[in-house]
Amino acid sequence: MTLLRLLLAALLLLTGQALAAAGAEPFAIAGQSVAPGTRADLRIAVAAGVDGETFIPVSVIHGDEPGPVLAMVAGVHGFEFASILAAESLAERVDPAQLKGTLVIVRIANIPGFEGRSPNVNPVDRKNLNRVFPGDPAGTQTQRIADLIAREVVARSTFLMDVHSGDGAEFLEAFVGAYGGPLATDFPLALAVARGFGFPNIVRYSMETQAQIDSGRSLNRQGVAMGKPTILVEIGQNGSREEAHVAGIVAGVENALVILGMADDPLPEVAAPARLFEGTASVSASHDGVYHPVDARPRRIMKGEVLGIIRDYAGREVERLVSPVDGYALYGITGPPVEAGDAVVTIAIPTKGF
Ligand SMILES: [Zn+2]
Questions:
Q1: Element (H, E) at 88
Q2: How many angstroms is it from 132 CA to the middle of ligand 1?
Q3: Could you report the per-residue pLDDT of 276-316, keeping only the tens digit for each?
Q4: What is the SS3 assignment for 155?
Q5: CA of 237 to the centre of ligand 1 (A)
Q6: Cα-only R_g, the chain
Q7: CATH number 2.30.40.10 is the correct assignment for the domain at 285-351
Q8: Long-range contacts of 26-30 (CB under 8 A, 24+ apart)
Q9: Domain spanning 26-273: which superfamily?
Q10: pTM (global) more than 0.90
């Protein structure tokens, strides 16, 4: 009896040590520790600060074996529902027992924007979370959210996916942006993961200057600043929640797990992109008022083409927006509301290859 117990104990100890040697370490995030082979659903608390507390819901799927840390962030814009529903689906689908490395899913980065059904901004402080990185722990609520996502999520990742889906009063054609150029990290890997989504458009954003990274810094540029291979995923428009868009994001992330070596499944065949672009040019409004687009849809655009007019609140035309380049209108606002400084149309610049 005693001998048997001793033998069993020795066996357990040996097995445990062998597992520990081959397996992953616990994953630390937000003051918590997630054991290998398990999943944790947690909340990163955003302290009350100057304008009230909130939280960031995160699911961590931590594999048995060590590997990359893929951070998938949804809901930076709380009205972009396809990304949020895809995050929810992925958290259920990915099995920690089958995973090498760690998938960190930020289910909704901007809970106040989501609950407030607010396009573009957090209704608490009227800031756009995608313009305030790296954030500020002593700032307003949006800045505090950004600070926590940068420190708790981006800093712990080895690859960043910033997932959006076309905000309210926004048109958009599905694309993936991959960050390249001298100030970005591992463009070939970012491009491979981008292609894995099978979306019709891929944009390379070449990071040439620090100003490009710093001015109104988005989450994806925070990834670049922290040296992470980074992509921007966009599918859906006008706050849509189409099942096909949700499924497109889910498939792209699952393919990324294969491409990054985190899953052993074969990579399914995906469509090659119809169009490749080298950067974008934005046409911005100089007036507040009522925007009348000529055609608020994704399409080819010629240099000098009139994109739309802005009328003031007395109905007088105050501005005529014209394309500065030949390219492809990838996304933009549908109007009618427009504010001075808004990027009305973002035109991607075609390229034959990268
Ligand atoms: Zn967005």
A1: helix 81-93
A2: 13
A3: 999 999 999 999 999 999 999 999 999 999 999 999 999 99
A4: coil
A5: 10
A6: 22
A7: no
A8: 26/62, 27/60, 27/62, 27/69, 27/102, 27/156, 28/156, 29/58, 29/60, 29/104, 29/152, 29/153, 29/156, 30/58, 30/148, 30/152
A9: Zn peptidases (3.40.630.10)
A10: yes
